[in-house]
Design goal:
heterodimer, A: 237 residues, mainly alpha, MetI-like fold, 12 helices, flat, B: 232 residues, 9 helices
Chain lengths: 237, 232
């Protein structure tokens, strides 16, 4: 194994890190917005909202991400209506197709995580809020959502990490992010192991940092509200 | 959903053959993964420091690195290895490794990390009282393993294994990059040659949905079967 080659590969791959992070960040951002809507629809107990949301989640979780990416990137162009629409300049670009596919995909998974969080909020807490005279929206904003976020955070952290890994698929539709550049280097140099080590190290570093950030957030959100803390506070006061 | 209307009629059998290949690749990947998983779980539960470290390293790396990258490593790596071996024996030129083997090996190694955690969790879910009871009735280590540990671990592992299977099924689409003609690859070929990408990818999506629905339905029964006699 050639350490200098690994090092130079690492430098080359570093240039692709911003694209990977961009793809992951934008798709998580858009995906979360859709996911909140889906989770609300799923918990609304209104059939017209619940059933479509259920169907959406079923379809996106039951099919490979690669099929979804291809469906958007190659499939949509089949319709002349879409080709002549104002969205075409965006949908023609692999960049936006990748983000759209990743966002729609993560939305389905995140919706279930958020729904789990919402369902975990104890009824007593909602009842207490109602007894204080809070309106439905206020209960959601001040009580249900913060408690759900805390509960959903570990699962959500995993989903973000999965998203970073999923951006690798964008390389199949010509995006030169980390895996895309790595694949190009492998086919140019025929040194798959060294390139894998360099690319793997970068992904591991990103994953490691994200895990830490989620852990810190978890600690912060958990600390303020954990029962043991409340007792210590009570003892001190 | 009538796929025959969606895509030209001749293509449907081809997609079905691709779907069969998808199932084969996914099954062999899942099987290889479960071997890695059993070894990994054993290493994490009762291995020495070095073995445990190795298993921890394996799961950490494989859960942090995209599966596509692992597939590339195996696909190109095995070919490079074989070519150099071939050269050693006086051969010339580039020899490519069978894609099926490289693909299922790569999938197996990726999902082996998840298998490891599933088996480890399942083993730890066995109540100590059950193991103590087995010792108290005078079972030998081997009998205990075969009659108590394996069936109980399997029961606790089934829901987790079901999740891993669903992931593997979807991941198998990635091995299309190695040229194995499974469902995804066959769909790409069809989409390219007919100019109907949307119809083809929607059909492929429907086939994937059907496979995953049938498997989650059968897993439900497996779960019931292995939980017979369990107090709930």
């Amino acid at each position: 194994m050639d350490i200098t080659f690994i090092f130079s590969t690492l430098i080359t791959l570093m240039a692709a890190v911003p694209l990977t992070l961009q793809l992951a960040a934008l798709s998580v951002l858009f995906g979360t917005a859709i996911a909140v809507g889906l989770a609300l629809a799923r918990t609304s107990r209104i059939a017209v909202l619940d059933i479509p949301a259920r169907l959406y989640i079923f379809c996106f979780r039951g099919t490979p991400l690669l099929v979804q990416i291809f469906l958007i990137y190659y499939g949509l162009g089949q319709f002349s209506g879409i080709r002549s629409s104002f969205l075409w300049p965006l949908l023609r670009e692999p960049y936006w197709c990748a983000i759209l596919a990743l966002a729609l995909n993560t939305a389905a998974y995140s919706a279930e995580i958020i729904r789990g969080g919402l369902l975990s909020v104890a009824t007593g807490q909602i009842e207490a809020a109602r007894a204080c005279g809070m309106s439905r929206t206020m209960i959601f904003r001040r009580i249900a959502m913060p408690l759900a976020v805390r509960q959903a955070l570990p699962g959500y952290g995993n989903e973000i990490i999965n998203m970073v890994k999923a951006t690798a698929l964008a390389s199949i539709i010509t995006m030169m992010e980390i895996t895309g550049v790595a694949a190009k280097l492998i086919s140019e140099t025929y040194r798959p192991l060294e390139v894998f080590i360099a690319a793997g190290a970068i992904y591991l570093a990103i994953t490691f940092i994200l895990t830490r950030v989620v852990m810190i957030l978890e600690g912060r959100l958990g600390q303020r509200l954990s029962p043991s803390d409340l007792t210590t506070l009570g003892d001190a006061g | 959903m009538n796929s025959i209307i969606l895509i030209p009629p001749g293509w449907f059998p081809a997609l079905m053959a691709g779907a069969w290949m998808t199932i084969l690749v996914a099954l062999s990947g899942f099987f290889i993964g479960s071997i890695f998983g059993v070894l990994g779980a054993w290493a994490k539960i009762s291995g020495g420091r070095a073995v445990r470290g190795l298993a921890d390293g394996y799961t950490t790396v494989l859960r942090g690195v995209p599966d596509l990258l692992v597939i590339y490593l195996f696909y190109f790596g095995s070919s490079v290895l074989i070519t150099s071996l071939f050269g050693l024996f006086g051969g010339h030129g580039f020899v490519s490794f069978p894609g099926f083997l490289a693909g299922s090996l790569a999938i197996g190694i990726c999902c082996g990390a998840q298998h490891t955690e599933v088996f480890r969790g399942a083993y730890q879910a066995i109540a100590t009282g059950e193991l103590e009871a087995a010792i108290a009735t005078g079972m030998s280590r081997r009998v205990r393993f075969r009659r108590i540990i394996v069936p109980l671990t399997l029961r606790h592992a089934i829901p987790g294994l079901g999740n891993v299977w669903q992931v593997v099924l979807k991941e198998s689409a990635l091995v299309s990059v190695t040229g194995i003609v499974e469902l995804m690859r066959q769909t790409q070929v069809g989409a390219g040659s007919t100019g109907l990408p949307f119809n083809f990818y929607v059909t492929a999506a429907a086939i994937y949905l059907a496979i995953s629905s049938v498997s989650s339905w059968s897993l439900h029964f497996a779960e019931r079967y292995y939980s017979r006699g369990a107090r709930i």
